[in-house]
Description:
alpha/beta
Amino acid sequence: xxxxxxxxxxxxxxxxxxxxxxxxxxxxxxxxxxxxxxxxxxxxxxxxxxxxxxxxxxxxxxxxxxxxxxxxxxxxxxxxxxxxxxxxxxxxxxxxxxxxxxxxxxxxxxxxxxxxxxxxxxxxxxxxxxxxxxxxxxxxxxxxxxxxxxxxxxxxxxxxxxxxxxxxxxxxxxxxxxxxxxxxxxxxxxxxxxxxxxxxxxxxxxxxxxxxxxxxxxxxxxxxxxxxxxxxxxxxxxxxxxxxxxxxxxxxxxxxxxxxxxxxxxxxxxxxxxxxxxxxxxxxx
Length: 285
């Protein structure tokens, strides 16, 4: 492979959440660690503020990666006019990229060359991939329902679990309202040790997004409270593959706390999604 460069453009913020940013930042690091010149830049001023000093827009890049589900149609058109090789992540718009990498195809993905589909392309953050095995705290449960708990289910879920004798910690992400509090349960806001909290807990309650994938990879039993229809679809696939306990408040209210770890399919997320994308980039150049 000749020396080439990749430019990643990503979305992110309070309106759309932070999954695109976390994923793109992780992919950028994976490219760099595998000898691919890569840079990361936001599609909005808000996400560029979050990226910080590492943001860079290399307009001479050979390959463009777009990580957004909205407002990139015109950008795709312009990039193709510039003869750029374009890769999209979970894109379902009408304008076709050259390569489309899709985790869960809720509709048929479009691509000029090829679509790569499946949960084997899930990209995990460096902190997750590098997390060492640590002892689990028997009764510790963390509840992290997305960046901001869209449906306001954290406290109700915590009440149910506390009645089962579990030590509950509610974790709110960066898009949460700091005025969200709990009189009964411990609350953390965007903690720096979030990865070790997942690894040391006996149970994680989360939505059907990135935290679910991270928890499965770290072999922590996971119960899912989907916040959107799309998350419900993803959680059902995970349940079908025995990667999670179950989903929904009714399941949470009635589940048994004695868990048999050998019943779980933790290989559902193997942590090699980023490296598979590295191989895709190398092959198309």
